[in-house]
Write a structure and sequence with these properties.
By secondary structure, the chain is α/β, with parallel strands linked by helices. It has 3 domains: about 100 residues, no CATH class; about 100 residues, no CATH class; about 150 residues, Rossmann fold, CATH 3.40.50.720. The protein is built from 12 helices and 16 strands. A 6-stranded parallel beta sheet has the order 13-12-11-14-15-16, with helices on both faces. A 5-stranded antiparallel beta sheet has the order 3-2-1-5-4. Strands 8-7-6-10-9 form a 5-stranded antiparallel beta sheet, with helices on both faces. Helix 6 crosses helix 11. About 45% of the residues are buried.
Length: about 400
């Protein structure tokens, strides 16, 4: 959405009519994921893309029919034979479904512009095709990653669930829309569900690093390069300084409970890495993190240190199910020796877990390299599999 938003906003402000094409389904490999967009105004100007080849030409033709001939919205299917795939930008014989409709401005674009979290649900099949509704998160605010401004609650819980800002004109569809958004909004993926397409906008995921240790700066640098917002937390003022962590979104000099509150709480789009090696700080952070909605919790330390930490946390009231969430020792086995390699190990595991992977070598992996099961056309999306980042 963000790649077309500046031009889309300008065109709407100028009074132009605009059609927007959205990738709603993907099967096998495709250059653009569900949610990718292309906008076409009445003068024929184009921004964005839905594939890598001549699919765009066909989509533009449909957009012109909508803008100039009064045609209604259309769901297009492009199934490409392997030998033709490269000619149209769909390698490996990929298939895509594209929804093309006239753009109707809404708060969805405003939320996307400020890096907020929301979903627009559109009926793309059946007699209600073309109906759409905005779904927002209630009770959000602060520094976190929910809602318009973002944020969970200070005690580590996510904001209240999604609410409809309108209706699809059918109570059954409204209920299915809320259910689908509840599944997808924290996974931060757009997807086709039944007759609905759920288009999700979201801020970058957060990585909260507890411990202003030497390699935390490298963790922040790599996390930011991967599209995350890194934060550093440490109550020790001599270490927790912005100068030491130039790539951190914010450096918070506070104990974990106050830091979580200052950062707007913890939601499923938040990962937590505990790196201090100080039991007083580590345990204080983990007691909150393991009982929160965090999508990932990892902690530094040797196996002996992990065993001691486990006993302390059990004595403090943490249950076995909560402890099972802890990735400790943190990171993938890269044989890391330098600060940068250690940071790479940590960030790689965070990314792998967010994508539901274990982080092994692709040469030994079975199945598809790019798993699109969370965001595809209905025959794949209906498999019932859930992202580890989906709500409880």
């Amino acid at each position: 959405m963000k790649d077309i938003l500046p031009d889309l906003t300008d065109w709407v402000a100028a009074g132009d009519r605009v059609a927007v094409a959205t990738v709603v389904g993907v099967h096998r490999s495709a250059p653009r994921p569900p949610g990718a967009k292309m906008a076409i105004n009445a003068d024929g100007r184009i921004v964005g893309a839905v594939s890598g080849g001549c699919v765009e030409s066909a989509v533009v033709g449909v957009a012109e029919q909508i803008l100039h001939r009064g045609a209604g919205p259309q769901l297009l299917h492009f199934g490409i034979a392997d030998e033709e795939a490269w000619d149209v930008g769909l390698p490996c014989g990929g298939q895509i479904d594209v929804w093309v409709a006239e753009h109707r401005p809404s708060r969805f674009e405003d939320i996307a512009a400020v890096g907020g979290r929301a979903a627009r649900v559109t009926v793309i099949e059946g007699e209600r095709a073309g109906a759409e509704v905005l779904v927002e998160l209630a009770g959000s605010g602060g520094h976190g990653s929910g809602g318009l401004a973002g944020g969970g609650n200070g005690d580590g819980r996510r904001p209240a669930g999604p609410t409809l800002a309108g209706s699809l004109g059918d109570t059954g569809l409204d209920a299915r829309a809320l259910e689908a958004v509840g599944e997808l909004i924290w996974a931060q993926r757009s997807a086709w569900r039944g007759s609905l397409f759920v288009d999700v906008v979201h801020p970058p995921p957060r990585l909260i690093v507890f411990g202003a240790v030497d390699f935390a700066a490298a963790v922040c640098t790599l996390a930011r390069a991967a599209g995350w917002r890194p934060y550093v937390v440490d109550p020790r003022g001599r270490f927790a300084t912005p100068e030491r962590f130039p790539d951190a979104e914010e450096v918070v000099c506070a104990w974990p409970d106050k830091a979580f509150e200052q950062l707007g709480g913890i939601d499923p789009a938040t990962s937590i890495a505990v790196l201090t090696h100080d039991p007083k700080l580590d345990d204080a952070a983990l007691l909150i993190a393991l009982r929160s909605d965090a999508g990932y919790v990892g902690a530094m330390g040797s196996r002996r240190a992990q065993a001691s930490r486990r006993e302390r946390l059990l004595e403090a009231g943490v249950c076995e199910d909560e402890l099972a969430r802890l990735a400790a020792p943190i990171g993938l086995d890269l044989g890391a020796t330098s600060n940068e390699e250690t940071a790479l190990s940590i960030v790689a595991e965070v990314v792998a877990r967010r994508n539901g992977r274990e982080g092994g070598r692709l040469v030994h992996a079975g199945g598809r390299i790019h798993d699109v099961g969370e965001a595809t056309s209905p025959e794949v999306a209906g498999s019932g599999e859930r992202s580890p980042w989906s709500p409880g």
